[in-house]
Amino acid sequence: MKSHGNKASLKLKAACSTLATKVNSTHKARKQQRVRKCVLDLLQLYDPEKVHTVDKLMSEWRNREMQLLQHLHQQYHLTDVGLTYFKSKYSRLFELPSIYKGTFCRQCVRRSNGEQRLYHRLYKKRVTVYSIEQIKYSIAILRKLNHEHILKLYDVFESRTRLVLITDLFDYSKCSLPISLLNKSKQRGFTLNESIIANIFHQMLCIVDYLHSKHYVHCNLNHDSFIIENWNQNQLPSAQENKDDDDEEHEEQLECKQEPEPFVKLIRVDQCYSVPEIAAKKDSFNLANQRYAAPEILHFNRSKISAKSDSYSLGILLYVMLTGMLPKQIPMIKCSKVESLVDVVDREVIEYEMQLDHNKLAWNSLSFHARDLITKLVHKEPERRLSMQQCFRHPWIVRYQNGYLKYNLLYEGYTDNLKKYQCIQKVRSGIRRLLLIKDCLGLMNDYVLTDEAKSIVNHWARTFEAHSVYQVVVPSHIKQLIVDFS
């Protein structure tokens, strides 16, 4: 009986070992197939001439497949091992607003340490080649920058059809610069003053000064370039939640509750160029908002573009943060001489004169040093603008560092101005989408504008004018424009 039992146990052990060997061999074969697919994707993307050598590479690096992937990623300056391993490294959660054109964003968690990050996914067939090039250029710039106030890029995954970026986590719909200022201005128990705006502006100066130290000029600074990370957390209790509380207890809670300092981050670097790249650039800049751009960038005068071009954009940003609105621009048609291949030709150029005091109540409510800093930053001539180091030494920044600006409150209509500013930005983005729809409809020869579209637009315009809290009147040419594009 013992011998029979020993034989059965030996047969069981042999069967288990055979099964384990088959499982290991199957697992190893699947792993090799995944690695081969990753290697093939990399060669097709970055070195198509070596696609036929994929089997030779796999045989040379047998039992060292992961080292082969690491070698290729170092050779092609990539940060991780491809889309195949993305799901093994990250778990995706709920959707968030995107910041890059054509991307889809989700919150994700790194499985190894539980860190929360932002996942950007781009399908290459759904966007233009230019958009893909701009995102890849942003990736290249972000890899060269290492600053706590600049968006950090952790991983990049790429295949023939998709491009995935892993960055710092943020919700753009809640922490963008105008929305953060608007929410804080409406928050109970919190009052915006020049000291808070100076804190935000000082961090912007540090960011731009770091870019200039790396010999880069941003060229496209605007309100969409920055976010405020920690202001959408730790909100003070609202009035409805504390109806039954005593006034004394409520005041004590407000005093004990300390507001976090605003933490500014730069999230967009797609138009950030070095000085030699600007000198060799042939096409004009793709600007997100021309109201923030310096005149030399608008007219693409490469000889005048320098680090002081960013000073102009920062001056407009400071004006918006202090008043809640953009400065008024008065168009001036001037004649300028342009050199052509044959002769010097006179050409009409539209230049804009900046009027900072078009709203005298908002402008005069600012302190003298704040107005002086804005005026010296938005000069038309780059040579007369302040540099970053001169801004750090300006009396307004010095007074902020010494704690004197916290008593300078902002304009009473600041919140209303920010609401109007947000409304205008939404209208601008809506017109851009309508232009895209118009381009798509232009491909259809049998497209006919229906009367229903006209009635819907007219009803929307009347409702907007009658019930809008912003007191905005929709002009007739804008109505017709929307009708044509609807």
Q: How would you sum up this structure, described in words?
A:
The protein is an alpha+beta fold and 486 residues long. Helix content is 48%, strand content 14%. It is built from 19 helices and eleven strands. The strands form four sheets. Strands 1-2-3-5-4 form a five-stranded antiparallel beta sheet. It has a two-stranded antiparallel ribbon with strand order 6-9. A two-stranded antiparallel ribbon has the order 7-8. A hairpin with a 6-residue loop joins strand 1 and strand 2 (103-110). Helix 12 runs antiparallel to helix 14 (368-377). It is elongated, with a radius of gyration of 29 Å. Residues 234-246, 248-252 and 443-451 have low confidence and may be disordered.
Which shape, going by the Cα principal axes? elongated
Mean pLDDT: 77
> Can you count the helices?
19
- Largest beta sheet: strand ordering: 1-2-3-5-4
Instruction: Report how far the terminal alpha carbons are from each other.
Output: 89 Å
Succession of helices and strands = HHHHEEEHEEHHHEEHEEHHHEEHHHHHHH
Number of E-state strands = 11
Report on the biggest sheet: 5 strands, antiparallel
Rg over alpha carbons: 29 Å
Structural class estimated from helices and strands: alpha+beta
Strand content: 5-15%
Relative helix content = 40-55%
Q: Looking at the chains present, what oligomeric state does this protein adopt?
A: single chain
- Unreliable stretches (pLDDT < 50, length at least 5) are 234-246, 248-252, 443-451
